[in-house]
Design goal:
CATH class of the largest domain: Alpha Beta
Radius of gyration: 23 Å
Distance between the termini: 56 Å
Largest sheet: 8 strands, mixed
CATH architecture of the largest domain: 3-Layer(aba) Sandwich
Shape: globular
Helix content: 40-55%
CATH superfamily of the largest domain: TPP-binding domain
């Protein structure tokens, strides 16, 4: 990608074309270049969407609230050892600066070592880890609560709904959109419910859904009255996978179940977060992903993306998870695949490092705070799939009328 000037604030790259000049960020001009291309991309044979923490930050900001930022964690027990090891591991993983997930992962690994060696510090460190996990869960639930109670709640959720509907309104006979997210919060589930989008995931049941590992490829169909033959696919159906777990997943008797936590509810007490909460605070998963249930979830991600004619679109993902990056790079070895990166910033250079490993003709880049702002993206550049068929009919009508007008001129 030598043709790209990464010093610029905004970068627009469409497949193997000459880098587009963004200019004065005129949305009307840029829309003519971006929207038709994304419309074609969205109708690819296989389409997947990977969402990171950026989508949560965008929704909270649209509600005029400040997202609860998780800063580096401080431990009084072996604090310097944990910090230094977290910094070193982040550099080894080529992720730059360490974050709270690195601190938490390192602390958990150290606690396991202290426990095995029967060190007296093991109990104290375990108590601190529990406290940090409780703070993590509460901060994420606080984000939900602040948005729900905000006066701009409806406008923020309307944007998120439009964002998801743009992707999910694919032709029903095509392979379903598969949404993947590294987030623990439930903003996406809440918006999917509000949008009346049918969600297919690994959970079975109503009162206390339980995660199942079977792959029966369930789907939604209907039988139109008076029509014989095979049933038709229901529109507005997506597959959904939370790669790192969720705030409402709970481990109970070696089974993973969804526990009833209302959106925006912050419980007074969160018990046994380390043993019971199925969240995965680890940015360098590596060998750990071989364990249940994360091995199956990442296998879903690999099987959905690493196949011919597959398109993956990322939004709000900072390319800081090596295990995910490796799967995407494997996908890019298939010539017919394509990667679309929509990002508010360059993620401390991680986007540039990843892009330089890819084939330019398989990339579309929309980078910068103009493209990455949720409202600008939804209003100007994402396809309006709900009216796509009407637009096609309008184009045909205009084409026919043009032919009629031309024939009249010829007769005269």
């Amino acid at each position: 990608m030598k043709d790209l000037d990464w010093s610029k604030e905004h970068i627009l790259w469409i497949a193997n074309n000459v880098p587009e000049e963004v200019g004065d960020l005129d949305s009307k001009v840029l829309r003519k270049k971006i929207e038709p291309w994304l419309t074609a991309v969205f109708q690819s044979e296989h389409l997947s969407l990977l969402l990171g923490t950026g989508i949560t930050t965008a929704v909270v900001n649209e509600a005029n609230q400040e997202a609860q930022a998780m800063d580096r964690l401080e431990f009084s027990t072996c604090g310097n050892v944990i910090k230094d090891s977290a910094d070193e591991s982040a550099k080894l993983m080529d992720r730059g600066k360490a974050n709270f997930e690195d601190d938490l992962r390192t602390a958990i690994e150290l606690w396991n070592g202290l426990k095995i060696s029967k060190n007296d510090k093991a109990k104290a460190l375990k108590n601190e880890i529990d406290t940090q996990l409780v703070n993590l869960v509460k901060s994420l639930l606080e984000n939900e609560k602040k948005v729900l109670e905000s006066t701009d709640y409806h406008s923020a959720m309307a944007l998120l709904k439009q964002f998801l509907i743009s992707f999910s309104s694919r032709t029903a006979t095509r392979d379903r959109l598969h949404i993947f997210t590294t987030n623990y919060d439930r903003f996406l589930e809440h918006a999917l419910d509000l949008s009346a989008i049918h969600v297919l995931d690994r959970f079975i049941g109503k009162l206390s859904p339980i995660m199942r590992m079977n792959k029966m490829e369930l789907d939604y169909h209907y039988n139109p009255p008076g029509i014989r033959g095979e049933p038709r696919y229901v529109e507005g159906v997506v597959r959904y996978t939370k790669l790192h777990g969720s705030l409402d997943w709970r481990l109970n008797n070696n089974e993973i179940r969804k526990e009833p936590i209302q959106f925006g509810e912050v419980p007074d007490k969160i018990s046994n977060p380390f043993e019971a909460k199925v969240i995965y605070p680890n940015s360098a998963k590596g060998i750990d992903t071989a364990y249940f249930p994360y091995s199956e979830l990442f296998r879903d991600f690999s099987s959905a993306t690493c196949r011919p004619n597959s398109v993956l679109i990322t939004y709000g993902y900072g390319f800081g998870d090596t295990h995910i990056n490796n799967i995407i790079l494997d996908m890019m070895t298939i010539p017919s695949t394509h990667l679309v990166i929509i990002s508010y910033d360059k993620a401390d250079g991680r986007v540039e490092k990843f892009v330089n490993k890819c084939n330019p003709s398989q990339l579309t880049l929309l980078i910068g705070n103009h493209f990455g702002k949720l409202k600008t993206l939804v209003k100007n550049y994402l396809p309006k799939s709900a009216i796509d068929r009407i637009s096609k009919r309008q184009a045909k009508v205009m084409e026919v009328r043009k032919e009629i007008d031309n024939s009249d001129d010829t007769d005269e």
